[in-house]
Amino acid sequence: MLSAESFWTSSLRLASQGPSITRILAAAIAAVEPGAAVRRFVRLDGEILSVSGRVYDLRSFNRMVLLGIGKASVAMSDVMVDILGEWLSSSLVITKHVPNIPHIPLTILPGGHPVPDVLSLKAGQKTIELVSSLGSEDLLFCLISGGGSALVTAPLEGLSLADMQALTSALLACGASVDEINTLRRHLDRVKGGGIAELGNGATIVSLILSDVVGSPLEAIASGPTAPDPSMPLEALAILAKYGLEDQIPPSIYAALRSSPGTPGPDDPIFKNVQNVLVGSNFLAAQAALKLAQEEGFHPYLLRTDLQGEARQAAFELATFLRQTWKTGFPIPAPACIIAGGETTVTMKGNGKGGRNTELALAAVSELAHFPNVMLITLATDGEDGATDAAGAVVTGETFQHAAGLGLHPEHYLERNDSYSFFELLGDLLKPGSTGTNVNDLVFLFTF
After folding, report:
1. Going by C-beta distance under 8 Å and a sequence separation of 6 or more, which residues neighbour residue 146?
2. CA-CA-CA-CA dihedral for 251, 252, 255, 256, to nearest 10
3. Residue 374 phi, psi (nearest 5)
């Protein structure tokens, strides 16, 4: 579990409320710690396993197998191993960072993220081998969390890893939402869009899901390996047309979508023996942070948990709200802790370093310039903003002036999509390290 000290930055050290704020950030992450999330929903009493109110007699199954997919899958799997003990026959866990924890009896493989790589392809092959070996007398525990779409890939026949890499890179660069990206993935991959349920040969499946998608639609989290897919291939083609990607996408992608029979939908009988349980979400993290904020003396206010769209536009809207709240004390008086959750996107135009959270923070610098007693903090709950080691950044009313004194101009860095470099020079990158969980992003707005 991350300590409050792991969230210190230059601006937070200078702020009298810094210790309280770092404790609030840590509380948000602690609330969605994957192991604790699993324990809230799973209980074993002798031979009887209870999962969110549904009961399973473990004596009635031939084998019990565990499959973990996602950034939080190791922590989730560790708890399930502890709960099941000798009932568990075998396991396969695919994650981004393979931990050096020798006592965990798990087979752990790495995968690529955010773009799938050869490790993702190997993980996909191993996943298919494991799930395809099951039968109707077996019980499969799936532990699903964010990042799973890239960490595990098994392209349809006729598609290559290079095809999927080109598709993913183009979608990430054009500003497509996670929902849109995963809609395409579900129609191009054997394990996504209910693929695990389809490959399981009638096995009973219990899927515990930690959401990293706005609104938590099950089909979008890790591209829904155990969930019905409500979308059609034509919708996937429409997304490519929406972003004008015709010249950037390999022809094989179009051929696969046009010839696809579709993925299993909500009425498909393969889901008869599948239980999908949402065990953690962005809302839960926000609620925990607000609870501690109140204990720390702040007035708590949940603004929204459906933040989407361009990071720069979100920055403008959030900074405007923060300024107005500071001026008027409405809808919440100072000192206030206001939280917004969700996941924005970035349309890449430069070749700088950064992610959606630091880009949002950078776009807010000019908007908050010279406003005293305000602070905006962005936080990726997995501890990693894009392909960087930062989780986000801290912006105050003094950030603009401080940057100017160092010859740093926010607009120049925005033009290059180089938000990481900007905040690194200021010492205001949040670098708590990998959190082991993933429930989207949080933005904290403070008035003092």
Report:
1. 70, 71, 72, 210, 211, 212, 213, 221, 222, 382, 438, 439, 440
2. -150
3. -130, 155
Classify 205 as helix, strand or coil. strand
Same domain membership, residue 387 and residue 407: yes
Whether the link from the prior residue into 410 is cis, omega within 30° of 0, is no
Q: Does 184 map to a domain? A: no
Q: Is cis: bond before 233, omega within 30 of 0?
A: no
Residue 39, H or E segment: helix 34-41
Q: Which of 245, 280, 315 is the last residue of a domain?
A: 280
| 243-to-10, 172, 211, 236, 311 alpha-carbon distances in Å | 39, 11, 26, 12, 17
Q: Among all chains, which residue has been given the structure tokens 């960087």?
A: 388
Q: What pLDDT was estimated at residue 101? A: 64
Provide the token pair at 322. Answer: 């923060």
Q: Which residues of the chain have pLDDT under 50?
A: none
Same domain, 434 and 305: yes
Residue 443 bridge partners (DSSP): 340, 378
Quick one: 337 and 348 in the same domain?
yes
pLDDT tens-digit map of 271-290: 999 999 999 999 999 999 99
Is residue 251 domain-resident?
no
Domain that residue 383 falls in: 4-30+283-447
Of 336, 429, 328, residue with least CA distance to 374: 336
Domain membership of residue 236 (yes or no) is: no
- Are 225 and 321 members of one domain? no
- Nearest CA to 189 out of 133, 143, 233 is that of 233
DSSP-based three-state secondary structure for 110: strand
Inter-residue contact 355 to 385 (CB < 8 Å) = yes
In a domain, 385, yes or no: yes
Same domain, 441 and 313: yes
What residue has token string 């706005």?
214
The answer for 112, left when phi > 0, alpha when psi is -120 to 50, beta otherwise, is beta
Whether residue 207 is found in the same domain as residue 344 = no
Percent of the chain that is helix, strand, coil (3-state, to 5): 40, 20, 40
Per the DSSP assignment, residues forming a β-bridge with 208 are 143, 277
Q: What is the residue-wise DSSP string for 299-367?
A: EEEEEEEEE-SBHHHHHHHHHHHHHHHHHH--SSPSSEEEEEEE--B----S-----HHHHHHHHHHHH
By C-alpha distance, which of 25, 226, 259 is closest to 127? 226
